[in-house]
Amino acid sequence: GAAFYAAVEDYAAALAHLRDQVEALGLGRRMVALGASAGGIAAASLAYPPRGPWQDLPRPDAAMGICAAMVQPWRLTTDGPPLVMMHGFHDGVIPPHNIRVLARKAGAKGAPIVTHITDVKGHRHQVDAFLNRADPLTVMAPPCDQEIVALRQTVEAEVAIGRSWQGEPIT
Asked: Which residues pair with 86 in a beta bridge?
């Protein structure tokens, strides 16, 4: 509904502001949209925007959704930004079926999407698992493991010093 589109627009406005302030804030040039639950849905939707006026919003260089879903998986393209989606097998809020559909659609379209279904139970516990390394990602789905580990380390470092993530390149 309207709240979803407002969230995507707010995320885009924040992204545009950060890009305008790269030098002043000492930020990296690449920006990654990261969110959990509804924030992950907004991050994925900013990477692959819905039809309409949202198509012209600024897009991140990459995105990650934790315990999230893709609202319009038919919007996936081969030239879109990389998107990593991490989801629990036992999520009662957003069923894991959503991530499986996304994986099939991404594979069919050749979109740069990587999905991970973890053994972490619950919805909000995925974020704790991601930040505390209490998840099985270290043994899942190469070659994306290195990207996830790099992203997780950067997020952990930024959380530790109380700053928002700067979006340094993931290689």
From this structure: 66, 116
Answer yes or no: are the C-beta atoms of 126 and 117 closer than 8 Å.
Answer: no
Sheet holding 113-121, edge to edge: 32-36, 62-66, 83-90, 113-121
Q: Are 70 and 25 in contact (CB under 8 A)?
A: no
Instruction: Give residue for tokens 């700053």.
Output: 163
Instruction: Write out pLDDT tens, residues 82-115.
Output: 898 888 888 889 888 888 898 898 889 999 888 8
State yes or no: pLDDT of 136 exceeds 50. no
How is residue 144 written in tokens? 């994306």
CA distances from 49 to 56, 101, 123, 155 (A): 8, 18, 24, 24
Q: Would the pTM count as exceeding 0.90?
A: no
Contact assessment for residue 153 and residue 93, using Cβ atoms and an 8 Å cutoff: no
Q: What are phi and psi of 97, to 5 degrees?
A: -55, -35
